[in-house]
Design a protein that fits this description.
With 395 residues, the chain is mainly α. It contains 14 helices and no strands. It is globular and about 55 Å long.
Length: 395
């Protein structure tokens, strides 16, 4: 499908806004969810489950949404995701029982899974391979901006009740749906008319994605990166509290810094680095930075050291993610963009489901162990990226 440059630019910025609002809504929930769940009688374990089911929804449905976008086009799947995200926030606001809270969280994960891989496939449709990593980086910057402003908005609006921030996020998501409905053009016209059977969990497709000749290694690298990062997210606040006595306000400042670093690197740096050394070398560099920073966070002996290496860690994550997605897109046939990007997102979501409880077990042995574990996973990811680079250089 041929779009004018004006249509491509309009489509890209609408998707940028869509992903920003998705992460804004997610960020708004961060400071509210534990307190909201506790007010409904949840234990600490149940609070953790309300966080995990969001990623579980993404794991289950990201491949399905990706395949559907390859079959029916990107636009209808994106619209379903945006409208559904708005509905999930409304349910969150009206939740008066833990059951409704769980339903709203898993629905939010399911519908966000429709937006992200399909938006990436949309961008792959309208950009050249040369520009793809830069555009994926800018989409990542939308996530960073949402992560910066979301918790702050959630905290400010929560003084009026837990429901108000959720309804605010729902209104933003609905306005985004209206804008996309009227102004987002379709970017992909399916060429295959064969009837396909869609399964909720496509085990065959998931296996195919990690054994694929060209992208299997990249999907595994992405899952390892997500596994390491989810361990940091799961135990960071407890680590900061037990080693340095930091409270929620201090951890919030650190999260703000992480968001700023992510926006700067993904919005302005990753495209230049990829143009200079290429995608796979950028992935190698990113995993190297991640591994070193995980180790140094675990070894931190002062809050300054903790802050600095947490910021460096965010930079490593911001470098590796867009470059990896660009490579997966480049090495995938155009008729399978949504499918393969969705499968990659699904593996990442599974890692985010497993990472926090695994980190919690390690944390029980020694509080720095989850970060050393993350460093080990990054070493594995870097070695796989090096092997991949050498294979493609040789061939």
């Amino acid at each position: 499908m041929i779009l004018t440059e004006q249509q491509k630019q309009r489509g890209f910025w609408l998707l940028f806004l869509a992903l920003f609002i998705d992460l804004l809504g997610f960020g708004i929930m961060i400071p509210l969810l534990p307190f909201y769940a506790e007010s409904l009688g949840a234990s600490a374990f149940v609070v953790a489950l309300t966080m995990a089911v969001y990623s579980l929804g993404q794991f289950l449905f990201a491949p399905l949404w990706g395949r559907l976008s390859d079959r029916y086009g990107r636009r209808p799947i994106i619209l379903v995701g945006l409208l559904g995200t708005s509905i999930s926030f409304v349910l969150f606001g009206f939740a008066s029982t833990l059951t409704l809270l769980f339903i709203s969280r898993i629905l939010g994960g399911i519908l966000t899974a429709a937006t992200l891989p399909t938006s990436q496939a949309y961008v792959a449709d309208i950009t050249s391979e040369k520009e793809r990593a830069k555009k994926f980086g800018m989409l990542g910057a939308a996530f960073g901006l949402g992560f910066i402003f979301g918790p702050a908005i959630g905290g400010l609006l929560s003084v009026y009740g837990y429901a108000v921030p959720a309804f605010f996020a729902a209104a933003l998501a609905f306005l985004n749906f209206v804008g996309a409905y009227f102004w987002l053009p379709e970017s992909f016209k399916p060429t295959s008319l064969e009837t396909k059977h869609y399964h909720l969990i496509d085990f065959k497709g998931m296996w195919k994605s990690i054994t694929h000749e060209h992208i299997g290694t990249l999907v595994i690298i992405g899952a390892l990166i997500a596994l390491g990062f989810s361990q940091l997210q799961g135990m960071y606040a407890l680590f900061a509290e037990q080693r340095f006595g930091l409270g929620p306000a201090s951890v919030g400042i650190i999260l703000f810094v992480v968001g700023v670093v992510s926006v700067v690197v993904q919005g302005f740096v990753v495209g230049r680095v990829v143009a200079w050394i290429g995608e796979i070398k950028t992935v190698i560099l990113g995993t190297l930075i991640l591994g070193a920073s995980y180790t140094m966070i675990g070894l931190s002996s002062s809050t300054t050291m903790l802050y600095v290496f947490t910021g460096i860690n965010a930079a490593g994550f911001a470098l590796s993610g867009p470059s990896l997605n660009a490579l997966i897109s480049e090495r995938t046939h155009k008729d399978e963009q949504g499918t393969m990007l969705g499968l990659a997102q699904s593996w990442g979501a599974l890692a985010r489901v497993l990472g926090p409880p695994f980190a919690g077990i390690l944390f029980g042995f020694t509080i720095a162990l989850p970060f050393y574990s993350g460093a080990f996973f990054m070493l594995c990811a870097m070695l796989m990226a090096l092997k991949n680079y050498r294979f493609y250089t040789k061939n």
